[in-house]
Amino acid sequence: MAGENYLGRGIGGLSGNTGGIVWGLLAAGLFSAVAAMAKIAVHEYHVLQILFFRQALIFVFSLPSIARSFPSSLKTSRPGIHAIRLSGAFVALSCGIWAVAVLPLTTATTITFAQVFFVVLFALIFLKEPVGPHRIIAVIVGFLGVLIAMRPGAGGFTSLAGLIPLASALGAAVAVVSVRKLSQTESTATLLLYQALFVGVLAGVPLFWLWVTPDFYGWVLLISMGVLATLGQWVGVQALRSGEASVVGNMEYTKLVYAAVFGFILFSEIPDLHTIAGACVILASSAYIFHRERAQSRRHRS
């Protein structure tokens, strides 16, 4: 089939999964760079102003895709689920920027991996997706890794700082599960339009009171963040088109490496032992899930 041939070509002559891994590594690097830039920008600009610029640039670059199906892309039969999804996306994005402002990059990145475990839990409860005992155990172990990472960088479980990336992970999981549900009836253009428009509006309205006019350097920084975030989304889509989702999804965890490098070079941050230990537990849990998914996939194909 033509689609299979396209997926198999990957990039630069690489095989499907190999190409997907390369694209996935690039996407993780781009989003980690955006997080590092947000950590710089938040010293001068409010979290919502940074989020507004990011969403505005994504919206501008998405206009050609949106225009092709407008105004039908505005129609939806599930406004309630859209509202839940947009609320989750807003919490995820705003708290994600806030988290890197108050925590070391590696610590914030490690804790936000709780999204993986929240998604499994919500998919089981709300989507009735089958989740076997092995995956449940792996999820529990992985979440323990998140709790280990929270203690040092956040000053303990009662610290607000440690709860910020956890809130981001929770919001992201709500958005992901909502998109899974919406994708059954809504077009990609509708999903894209609603998030780009309404998350931008939620971030933009408070700017009547919070706006700080950027200088030349500020404009370059904020616009660059939006461009890189848009590019990261596009590259992420290419990764999923090239390789299997179970393979590409595992590349998310390389953000830990990128965060450690950016944190050290830009902010002289050195991850503490608890963050490293928590990251190792999370990676081990994810590797186990990845191994089982691959083994089951092979059995189903044979």
Automatic annotation (TrEMBL):
<feature type="transmembrane region" description="Helical">
    <location>
        <begin position="160"/>
        <end position="179"/>
    </location>
</feature>
<feature type="domain" description="EamA">
    <location>
        <begin position="166"/>
        <end position="289"/>
    </location>
</feature>
<feature type="transmembrane region" description="Helical">
    <location>
        <begin position="136"/>
        <end position="154"/>
    </location>
</feature>
<feature type="transmembrane region" description="Helical">
    <location>
        <begin position="107"/>
        <end position="127"/>
    </location>
</feature>
<feature type="transmembrane region" description="Helical">
    <location>
        <begin position="216"/>
        <end position="235"/>
    </location>
</feature>
<feature type="transmembrane region" description="Helical">
    <location>
        <begin position="247"/>
        <end position="267"/>
    </location>
</feature>
<comment type="similarity">
    <text>Belongs to the drug/metabolite transporter (DMT) superfamily. 10 TMS drug/metabolite exporter (DME) (TC 2.A.7.3) family.</text>
</comment>
<dbReference type="InterPro" id="IPR037185">
    <property type="entry name" value="EmrE-like"/>
</dbReference>
<dbReference type="InterPro" id="IPR000620">
    <property type="entry name" value="EamA_dom"/>
</dbReference>
<feature type="transmembrane region" description="Helical">
    <location>
        <begin position="21"/>
        <end position="42"/>
    </location>
</feature>
<feature type="domain" description="EamA">
    <location>
        <begin position="20"/>
        <end position="149"/>
    </location>
</feature>
<keyword id="KW-0812">Transmembrane</keyword>
<feature type="transmembrane region" description="Helical">
    <location>
        <begin position="191"/>
        <end position="210"/>
    </location>
</feature>
<protein>
    <submittedName>
        <fullName>DMT family transporter</fullName>
    </submittedName>
</protein>
<feature type="transmembrane region" description="Helical">
    <location>
        <begin position="48"/>
        <end position="70"/>
    </location>
</feature>
<feature type="transmembrane region" description="Helical">
    <location>
        <begin position="273"/>
        <end position="291"/>
    </location>
</feature>
<dbReference type="Pfam" id="PF00892">
    <property type="entry name" value="EamA"/>
</dbReference>
<keyword id="KW-1133">Transmembrane helix</keyword>
<dbReference type="GO" id="GO:0016020">
    <property type="term" value="C:membrane"/>
</dbReference>
<keyword id="KW-0472">Membrane</keyword>
<feature type="transmembrane region" description="Helical">
    <location>
        <begin position="82"/>
        <end position="101"/>
    </location>
</feature>
